[in-house]
User: Which sequence fits this backbone?
């Protein structure tokens, strides 16, 4: 299976160059999730200073694969499926301070990943515990374009409007990756509604450690390339990281299909334990 993965990856690099993507998790009966915000709009420079681009270098070419969020100078939070099968021979980088994904920018910082910690109960498939921490080789330098994001209170719930950002695909089949960071305002939906919406695409269930967003009327959703990136809730004028883009249905933004996230508040103890012990 791993050999097939490398074969696909090398072919993708040769044929598609800048369009290289690791497949996000999706419902098997429909396809993989793709990573750009379908139905989003351009973010302003520096609007999401905690947003990073996770980039992998296998054969001399480095390109965006997933998003992530800065927790402090040394640690970044992302989805487990983004890093679960990265080869020991690959070089993994966190690029912060980015607005354009294709251009070198004076605001950007590039840091090599020293250590990857995947949640011990992540199965490698669609499901719970899709969360991972990345320890950087050297600390980030904070400024107006590179900042950490606050975590929510342990086991707190999320309701109402939330904001998604990322460089995921902007069209439903996930083939067009934007140059400029995208954003979209979404609304959370209950887990009962979410499960009823996804059950027609397969037997995967959302659980209490997930968050779901609509609108299930279609048109706006996370897409391929958004994986691992932040879903935030503004509280008292400050952003809190409430979700990590986990999985969804392709075509992105399909009527009746929500986007599914790892609920960060369910993993506060795990996050703190990993960072304190490493």
Assistant:
């Amino acid at each position: 299976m791993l050999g097939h993965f490398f074969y696909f990856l090398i072919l993708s690099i040769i044929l598609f160059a800048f369009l290289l993507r690791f497949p996000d998790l999706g419902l098997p009966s429909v396809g993989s999730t793709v990573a750009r915000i379908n139905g989003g709009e351009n973010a302003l420079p520096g609007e999401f200073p905690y947003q990073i681009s996770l980039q992998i270098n296998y054969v001399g070419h480095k390109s965006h694969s997933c998003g992530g969020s800065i927790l402090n100078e040394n640690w970044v939070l992302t989805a487990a499926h983004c890093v679960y099968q990265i080869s020991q021979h690959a070089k993994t980088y966190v690029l912060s301070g980015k607005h354009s994904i294709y251009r070198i920018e004076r605001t950007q910082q590039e840091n090599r990943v020293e250590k990857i910690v995947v949640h011990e109960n992540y199965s490698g498939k669609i499901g719970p515990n899709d969360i991972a921490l990345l320890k950087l080789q050297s600390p980030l330098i904070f400024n107006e374009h590179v900042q950490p994001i606050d975590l929510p209170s342990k086991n707190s719930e999320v309701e109402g409007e939330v904001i998604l950002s990322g460089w995921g695909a902007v069209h439903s089949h996930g083939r067009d990756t934007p140059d400029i960071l995208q954003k979209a305002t979404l609304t959370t939906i209950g887990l009962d509604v979410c499960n009823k919406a996804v059950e027609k695409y397969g037997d995967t269930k959302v659980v209490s450690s997930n968050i779901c967003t609509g609108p299930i009327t279609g048109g706006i959703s996370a897409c391929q390339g958004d994986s691992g990136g932040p879903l935030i809730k503004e509280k008292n004028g400050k952003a809190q990281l409430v979700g990590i883009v986990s999985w969804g249905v392709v075509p992105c933004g399909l009527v009746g299909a929500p986007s599914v996230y790892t609920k960060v508040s369910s993993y506060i103890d795990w996050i703190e334990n990993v960072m304190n012990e490493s």
Remarks:
- Residues 1-36 have pLDDT under 50 and may be disordered.
- Residues 173 and 251 are 5 Å apart (CA to CA).
- Residues 51-147+269-277 form a domain with the Thrombin, subunit H fold (CATH 2.40.10.10).
